[in-house]
From TrEMBL:
Function: Catalyzes the transfer of the enolpyruvyl moiety of phosphoenolpyruvate (PEP) to the 5-hydroxyl of shikimate-3-phosphate (S3P) to produce enolpyruvyl shikimate-3-phosphate and inorganic phosphate.
Pathway(s) it belongs to: Metabolic intermediate biosynthesis; chorismate biosynthesis; chorismate from D-erythrose 4-phosphate and phosphoenolpyruvate: step 6/7
Gene3D superfamilies: 6-phosphogluconate dehydrogenase C-terminal like domain, Enolpyruvate transferase domain, NAD(P)-binding Rossmann-like Domain
A Pfam family recorded for this sequence: PDH_C
Molecular-function GO terms, alphabetical: 3-phosphoshikimate 1-carboxyvinyltransferase activity; prephenate dehydrogenase (NAD+) activity
Name of protein: 3-phosphoshikimate 1-carboxyvinyltransferase
Leading EC class: transferase
Annotated EC: 2.5.1.19
InterPro entries given in the database record: 6-PGluconate_DH-like_C_sf (IPR008927), Enolpyruvate_Tfrase_dom (IPR001986), Enolpyruvate_Tfrase_sf (IPR036968), EPSP_synthase (IPR006264), EPSP_synthase_CS (IPR023193), NAD(P)-bd_dom_sf (IPR036291), PDH_C (IPR046825), PDH_N (IPR046826)
Binding site residues for 3-phosphoshikimate: K343, S344, R348, S489, Q491, D637, K664
Taxonomic source organism: Isoalcanivorax beigongshangi
Residue ranges of every copy of the Prephenate/arogenate dehydrogenase domain listed in the record: 8-296
Keyword annotations from UniProtKB, A to Z: Amino-acid biosynthesis, Aromatic amino acid biosynthesis, Cytoplasm, Oxidoreductase, Transferase
Gene name, Swiss-Prot/TrEMBL: aroA
PANTHER family per the UniProt record, alphabetical: AROM/DEHYDROQUINATE SYNTHASE, PENTAFUNCTIONAL AROM POLYPEPTIDE
Amino acid sequence: MAAAPMFDRIAIVGLGLIGGSLAAAVRERGLAREVVAGVRSARTLETALAAGVVDAGSQDLAEAVAGADLVFVAVPVAAMAATFAAMAPGLSPHALITDGGSVKGSVIAAARQGLGAHMRRFVPGHPIAGKEKSGVEAADPLLYQSHRVILTPEPDTNAAATAKVCALWTAVGAEVLTMSAQEHDQVLAETSHLPHLLAFSLVDTLSRQGHSHDIFRYAAGGFRDFTRIASSDPVMWHDIFQENRDAVLTALDRYVADLADVRSAVAAGDSDALLGLMTRANTARAWFLARQGRTSFTHAQGALDEDAMTQQQQAAAGERSKPEFRLQPGGALTGSVRVAGDKSISHRVIMLGALADGVTTAEGFLEGEDALATIQAFRDMGVVIEGPQNGRVRVHGVGLHGLKAPARSLYLGNSGTTMRLLMGLLAGQAFDTELTGDESLTKRPMERVAKPLRDMGAVINTSGSGTPPVLISGGQPLKGLHYDMPMASAQVKSALLLAGLYAEGRTSVTEPAPTRDHSERMLAGFGYPVERDGATVAVQGGGRLTGCDLEVPADISSAAFFLVGASIAPGSDLLLPHVGMNPTRTGVIDILRLMGADIEVLNPRDSGGEPVADLRVRSARLKGIEIPAELVPLAIDEFPALFIAAACAEGDTVLHGAEELRVKESDRIQVMADGMQTLGVSLETYPDGIRISGRPDGAAFGSGDIQTHHDHRIAMSFSMAALRASGEIRIHDCSNVATSFPGFARLSAAAGLNLTVLEP
Ligand SMILES: O=C(O)C1=C[C@@H](OP(=O)(O)O)[C@@H](O)[C@H](O)C1
Ligand SMILES: C=C(OP(=O)(O)O)C(=O)O
């Protein structure tokens, strides 16, 4: 026997696009035994009956709703009060009532008057699924699929009624959100009502001009796109602007004030103000598209156009939030691969470029999500940044004291480097800031930076466990200090040097072992004096930076996956051009060479203050080693990849002194160990390292499923394992690869890895 439908009788009062489409969807899915319409016009009812959208109907609203267990009111918002009053006498005592009005405050007020004792079973709602088309002729049973419906239950609304209405919308394919009516009206005023008002108003202004005929003749795509929504139903929008008057006025006033600023910028030829506006808006729209498609920011930038996407494509993009890498075993890496730009250097280009006087340009910039998070943070602090486009950025420096207070907290995604360096930089500003990040960043320790900064006079709060969010109180005078760093961390060192730019006197840091020195090199490149004496580096506060032109080399940390892949896959011969060879970063090459790898350094040269070279790597028989302690900080990000090499080496590889790996984007010792054990590798973990027993011949890995734990380097390391696996490897949740290496999947497949990206 078929399951009983969700409702016995649904009454739809008002059969326009919204009411008609719900009626059609309910009938098509068999969600009610009977669908009855309450309508004003006999002709609408005739059309709906002929189209099979409803079973029956009446022009008498009390009669139409009689015996219904759910009533959906979908009349224009201005007609709600009269409609509620007219139907109330016919409502059965247990009937649930909901509506589809675009304004909630005024509809709720009307319902309180008209529905009387039925009010507790009234669940105010708003399906966000309009089109320019209207009328029951446009009714579409799929209209609500993958669209949002906002419910705004009142404190006295019956919870079971809300749950049942929610179930109905879910059953027709919608995603249901709940918020207060006030919040709804404000959000909608900004995201829907204001844009409609502007579209109507712009078309009106232009059409009333003397030469409007010509304007429309020459009006091209921009005009059509901007004004598409001016084709919507004028009466409906007239009602909305009146019913949501206060919220619309607030949004309009804010916009008019901003528009006045835009006018002044155009009049004054203020190109920084204009570029700032355009670049901020451009990025904001890319973020919005990324969120809408729930895809990664780098996917969305320039790649998607929401208008060009079909509903199915948008739904697919939503699913793409967690792409999976699927790898077939075997293969060799050959040819030439130019890997992504250096992440550490890209962050610093933006930071120092922003603090400099004049313009800074860079080529080869990393268009990965971490670097984009840094860009966004500085845009939020008023810095104009053009690009990145094809690896080019232009930063319009504002000087050491030119940053502006951001309007909201700075969201830094997955990027530990951005957060820690910014803590130092922001400690010296006149304004307060809050730094937040994603799930992985929110677990990472920030006290290592906060503590010495407090000793300089900064006021910084972290959460109870020393993790983000980080609150930095501005306006604190900083004093230089000497700091003996307890751990080898370039992020801590850099944060203190950046704070040192704002401190009185000299700030010096001594490191227990050499760490990457990009901050020192780049400060010098911007003309800021940096003293170096053995393990100590120091700056004097109060200097200035001058904008310059830079080139970002390819990231040796990204090259590392290919150095390992080509070493372990027989028959490989791969060229990696223009890789950064800063001696504080080349530990991965030293370690691989100690293991017997065949890596040639070709054409070494200088590129804007950083050494670079082309690397040629050929497969080799690797042997296990004890990794020398002094190389650990020089290869800190490359260990996940090196563990894969170790599993293919003869004998044991032992790592100690690497407890830092436990507080990266994931606990890289544990997450790598778990994944390798899944693939049959024998190993033992230590608090500060790992012992891996390798298999030099044949397959070193089996097949299986790998979890990345939001860590890009885990995903890319296990991809290389496939070159020496006996079966398929499936790596789940690989969206994080875009953090440091967008394009990894395409480049590695072109070089010979059997990788497909599954975007379910
Ligand atoms: O300064 C930098 O750009 C970085 C320093 C390192 O972190 P630690 O300073 O925490 O070792 C490294 O792991 C990170 O990927 C980038
Ligand atoms: C540790 C890393 O980066 P961050 O600390 O900037 O998140 C990394 O890229 O491996």
